[in-house]
Design goal:
The complex is a heterodimer of chains A (235) and B (804). By secondary structure, chain A is an alpha/beta fold. Chain A is 36% helix and 28% strand. The two termini of chain A are 32 Å apart. The radius of gyration of chain B is 34 Å and the shape is elongated. Classes of the chains: A alpha/beta (235), B alpha+beta (804).
């Protein structure tokens, strides 16, 4: 299939400590198409986040193949991966990970800075996305001055401002109450409808229901897959 | 734009950790200020006479004569310069300098000034050296006899302004001179230290003729200007040839076995040549190295604080790193960000440091005797030095944190698990050991120099120096012509207990003369230190007569035929019964001696020269009619009234000649001026480094406590009290101090021994200083630690564990 955006074959991740070796990922094969919203589920320690970090090119697998947009990632240097990250990928984290010393505007502006966009373009783009997320009026505030939900919206804004083809979300609602959590999930769904591929790690079936497809991970292995009917959840 | 983003983050981090930022930036600022001052000093010392355009072609020629006793002088005889010019085609020109004496009486109309640093020189001065003539014609200004070129300051002092000065007449001593030029003040560092130049041709023809015929009379410094840059080795054979051709035939005329040879000293490095007698004050290269090390030490100590700060902040910065990486920042981009940040902070510290320099320059000038101003910082060399300091410090301070931070694994950080900085604990320990080592070295150094200085001050020099005023008696005053009546006037006052006239005194340059002394078979020519004095000299200085008798005014023959020597002279001449041994002086060309006499007494050794030198033989001549100095002993507690009476008596004789006096004890102390300067500079900078290191220790303990907060809290819940926590923390610091001592003590011992070797009279290695230094460092560490332990003991451990 030509619209495959992510494809892995026999992905493995081993952690060695002095005492033992842990196999965090074991022969993971998966395919994600352009425009999909996929959730990865499983209990803590099953390797969800490890998988997400590899897919997001923050980590390198110890074995196996990973193709991003058809390109073999294993052979790339850190610098090339950094370049791919800043152009094609966005991240949303459970703990928001905003830089405390930068204002909302400056946090959201960061990816555009790394992409080397001009000042006027950046300004327009950041305001556009903040408006869309409904936090334009908070542009000059610092992260600590915002509620958790607002912070995560800023994080989503930051993840999307560079117009990435994939957003990787790691427990995006983990630190939020259910009202704010649903707000964030709706934002992600909206982005997905607009064409952005979304890969989300979660242990919440509620959140997973927003996705089209759920992968179940256990002890580093994909043990199952299910289709969700998005329409039902939203109604 | 990205840069602005970095700037914002750096700045907000600085604001967030105010206490730490203040510690590390102020420490860095003080460190940078110290380094700048030291750099100024070193640069100044290194730039002596480097401003002359022809410096590569200029060399000083010096003469060594061996006339039964070697003199390696910075001087030559008068005819050396002209002879080299006429004999060797590679020599383009020469210029000679002959001091006119230490204090001169200058008459300008009816006003009288006492000045020094007047130098007789050749008219070629301006062709060889780059001293700027502000008024007058460089070719003509010193071409004829009785011409003087005044420095700008003197011209203004004498005549109000420089143009007014031209063509005026002043008298120097008994001679009259016309002002034919005004020269820039000697503000640039130069060994040619002048207030005025007079034409060498002013010397009376008779004197010129005598001097020009004598290759052994060392009277002037001679500089040669070569056509090409000089290769010393190449020119060596010319020097040998000169001795062969000129000196040998000259020595043959009086049938002695004496010899003289010559050495060329290129202008470069000349300022640090201390090997010659009768030289102008020179620099001390090893002190420059010491100062350079001091500057580096302080900079490193301050930089280490900064590195520690950066590392303690790295936990907080880890998240930023993770996010930036996830957003696509490469490792090199992050490294540059953190390096840039450190450049920025060091730059900030440097600006503050420059402000400090501005404030400290007057004190620094006073300590070093230099004349720096803030504008000295804007020379090309200094700006380069500043940039070098900036980059070096920024690199030292920023490189490691930059590498560590940029390597953080973003995947882990972003999951919320902070990187274990504990891994860098060993590095912190190493850095702290370095800080402690440097601090200990500097404290030991300061204390050791101080011990040696106290030893020098307290050492019994073998003569009395308290309550003695030393009065200059210029030959052109009426006092000089009425020595004994002046003495009587002084003795008539109850304020004074005694007075003695002499031609030398301990603490000043004691002269050296050619003597001929009795040996088993024959008389031997020997150059020996001497003092000419009257009969009261021994009592005033409290010198002890070991055998024989002192001079007597009643014995007419004493003036030509009596000598008193010191113990060392008796020993070194091999005289077991010195009384009655023959001594001659005033040797003449025909081999005859003008004065021929016998040893009448032996005095106990006293330190007429500084304690840098071993005790040397000394001959004391009896000459009550030639006193250039009066040593006047004041009755206890009467110094102020004594000086008033002295002033009155002086005026009665000398009119408006100003009274010039010093105290003997101060005069003796000036011999150790360069050590005193060293001590002061060392002391100041040691203090600064302890302060900076102390601040660093404080910050570091705070960090250590913070890192181990959970461990401490658990221990506390399990029953540990203040003492246990203190011990726990103290043990670690004790180790570090121990290692630092192991490194610093041998280093200090080695450095101090080599420094002490410069003195003939020195203390043993001052182990007490070592102990004191270690105790001091331990106390500072303990204080830094105690604060945090007490604070720790007061916190509620449950609260900390709940937060985890």
């Amino acid at each position: 299939m030509s619209d495959l955006i992510i494809k892995t074959q026999g992905l493995e991740m081993r952690y060695r400590t002095e005492l033992m070796e842990t196999l965090a990922l074991n022969q993971v094969d998966l395919e994600i198409r352009q425009g999909e919203f996929v959730s990865i589920m499983g209990p803590s320690g099953c390797g969800k986040s490890t998988l997400l970090n590899i897919l997001g090119m923050l980590d390198q697998p110890t074995a196996g193949k990973y193709f991003f947009e058809g390109k073999d990632i294993a052979g790339l240097k850190e610098q090339q991966r950094a370049k791919l990250r800043k152009q094609r990928v966005g991240f949303v984290f459970q703990s928001f990970n905003l830089i405390d010393e930068l204002s909302v505007f400056e946090n959201v502006e960061l990816p555009l800075l790394y992409q080397g966009r001009s000042a006027s373009e950046r300004k327009a783009q950041v305001h556009k996305i903040l408006e869309r997320m409904g936090i334009d009026h908070r542009a000059d505030h610092y992260p600590q001055q915002l509620s958790g939900g607002q912070q995560q919206r800023v994080a989503v804004a930051r993840a999307t401002v560079g117009e990435p083809s994939v957003i990787f979300a790691d427990e995006p609602t983990g630190n939020l109450d259910s009202v704010h959590g649903d707000e964030v999930m709706n934002l992600l769904s909206e982005l997905n409808r607009a064409g952005t591929t979304i890969v989300m790690v979660t242990h919440s079936t509620h959140d997973a229901a927003f996705s089209q497809r759920s992968l179940r991970l256990f002890d580093g292995k994909v043990i199952g897959e299910s289709q969700n009917r998005l329409e039902e959840v939203q109604s | 734009m990205m840069f602005r983003n970095y700037l914002k983050v750096s700045w907000r981090h600085l604001l967030a950790g105010k206490a730490n930022s203040v510690i590390s930036i102020s420490g860095l600022a003080v460190g940078v200020a110290s380094a700048i001052l030291i750099a100024l000093y070193i640069q100044d010392e290194l730039s002596y006479d480097q401003f002359h355009e022809k410096k590569d072609r200029i060399a000083r020629i010096v003469e060594r004569i061996d006339h039964s006793g070697e003199i390696k002088a910075a001087l030559t005889s008068l005819p050396v310069g002209p002879q080299f010019l006429s004999d060797y085609p590679e020599v383009e020109n020469f210029v000679r300098f002959m001091s006119m004496g230490s204090t001169l009486t200058i008459k300008v109309e009816d006003r009288i000034f006492r000045e020094d640093r007047f130098i007789r020189t050749d008219s070629t001065l301006f062709e060889v050296f780059d001293f700027k003539l502000l008024q007058g014609d460089p070719k003509a200004a010193l071409a004829g006899p009785n011409q003087v070129v005044l420095s700008k300051t003197l011209a203004e002092k004498f005549f109000g302004n420089t143009t007014e000065a031209m063509g005026q007449t002043i008298s120097i001593g008994t001679g009259k001179y016309t002002v034919t030029g005004v020269i820039e003040d000697g503000n640039r560092p130069s060994d040619i230290d002048y207030q005025a130049f007079t034409s060498l041709s002013t010397l009376p023809p008779q004197a010129q003729q005598t001097l020009n015929g004598d290759w052994f009379r060392l009277v002037c410094q001679t500089y040669l200007l070569f056509k090409q840059p000089v290769d010393q080795l190449d020119f060596d054979h010319q020097l040998a040839d000169f001795t062969e051709r000129i000196i040998k035939p000259f020595v043959a005329t009086f049938g002695a076995s004496s010899t003289a040879d010559f050495k060329l000293q290129p202008l470069e490095g000349l300022h640090f040549d201390n090997s010659r007698e009768y030289d102008t004050p020179k620099g001390n290269l090893s002190y420059l190295y010491i100062f350079g090390l001091l500057g580096l030490f302080i900079l490193v100590i301050a930089t280490i604080n900064f590195v520690n700060l950066a590392l303690s902040q790295s936990v907080k910065r880890a998240k930023e790193v993770g996010v930036r990486k996830a957003l696509g920042a490469g490792q090199s981009q992050l490294r540059n960000q953190f390096l840039g940040e450190s450049v920025l902070i060091v730059f900030l510290a440097m600006i503050i440091g420059l402000g400090l320099v501005e404030v400290l320059i007057p004190t620094f000038n006073e300590t070093t005797g230099k004349h720096f101003s803030f504008s000295n910082l804007f020379s090309v060399e200094m700006i380069l030095t500043l940039v070098l300091i900036l980059l070096l410090t920024a690199l030292m301070a920023g490189l490691y944190p930059a590498v560590v931070l940029s390597k953080f694994q973003s995947s882990a950080i972003l999951r919320g698990s902070l990187p274990k900085i504990g891994r860098y604990g060993n590095l912190r320990r190493v850095l702290m050991v370095v800080q402690l080592t440097f601090s200990i070295l500097m404290i030991i150094g300061t204390l050791a120099i101080q011990s040696q200085m106290r030893f020098l001050q307290d050492k019994d020099l073998g003569f009395d120096q308290d309550q003695i005023i030393v009065l200059n008696v210029p030959q052109d005053t009426a006092v000089f012509n009425h020595l004994s009546s002046f003495k009587d006037r002084i003795l008539s006052h109850t304020e004074f207990v005694g007075i003695s006239g002499s031609q030398g005194i301990p603490g000043s340059n004691v002269g050296e003369l050619m003597f001929r002394i009795e040996q088993e078979a024959e008389m031997l020519d020997k150059s020996i230190k001497f003092i000419a004095a009257d009969e009261d000299f021994f009592e005033i200085l409290g010198l002890e007569l070991l055998e024989g008798r002192l001079f007597s005014r009643d014995i007419q023959s004493d003036q030509q035929q009596a000598f008193i020597i010191n113990e060392t002279a008796a020993q070194s001449f091999g005289w077991s019964n010195p009384i009655g041994k023959r001594i001659q002086w005033g040797l003449q060309g025909n081999g005859q001696a003008a004065n021929d006499g016998k040893v009448i007494g032996v005095v106990e050794d006293f330190h007429f020269a500084s304690l840098h030198n071993p005790m040397e033989p000394l001959v004391i001549l009896f000459n009550p009619n030639f006193s250039l100095l009066f040593s006047i002993k004041i009755a206890g507690g009467n110094i102020r009234s004594g000086l008033e009476v002295l002033e009155e008596e002086w005026q009665a004789y000398a009119g408006n000649h100003p009274l010039e006096y010093t105290f003997l004890d101060e005069r003796v102390q000036t011999q150790y001026q360069s050590e005193k300067t060293l001590l002061q500079i060392f002391g100041y900078f040691a203090l600064i480094s302890i302060l900076i290191a102390g601040l660093g220790l404080f910050a570091l303990t705070s960090y250590t406590v913070e890192q181990r907060l959970k461990e401490f809290s658990v221990r506390k819940i399990l029953g540990a009290d203040l003492k246990d926590l203190g011990l726990l923390l103290g043990k670690e610091f004790a180790w570090l101090i121990g290692i630092a001592s192991l490194i610093s003590v041998p280093l200090a011992a080695w450095g101090i021994s080599s420094w002490l070797d410069d003195f003939s009279y020195r203390i043993d290695l001052p182990w007490l200083s070592f102990v004191l230094a270690l105790v001091l460092i331990a106390v500072v560490t303990l204080l830094a630690m105690a604060y945090h332990v007490v604070r720790l003991a007061r916190t509620n451990p449950a609260r900390i564990l709940r937060d985890e």
